[in-house]
TrEMBL record:
This is ParE toxin of type II toxin-antitoxin system, parDE. It comes from Actinopolymorpha cephalotaxi. The lineage of its organism: Bacteria, Bacillati, Actinomycetota, Actinomycetes, Propionibacteriales.
Amino acid sequence: MSRERHLLFEQGYLTGFKDLITTDQIMARRVMALVNSLASDPEPEGSIHLGGSLIYRLHIEDCRVMYEVTDDTVRVWSLGKVRR
């Protein structure tokens, strides 16, 4: 059973989330739910570990979340739209 980690949100994520709320509230809810779940499962299906670091990338449709995982913390760095 995995333990809950603390979630820390950096300004880049908060700014991106604020922008997303104004343009797509449904996607903002999906992102919020998935990011909150990182506390208990920091490596969900679809996450990509960027080798040689503690950084992960996670795509949620057209959004990309970048975050760092340590023993007791998930630090969410950024949220942005990506072109596909």
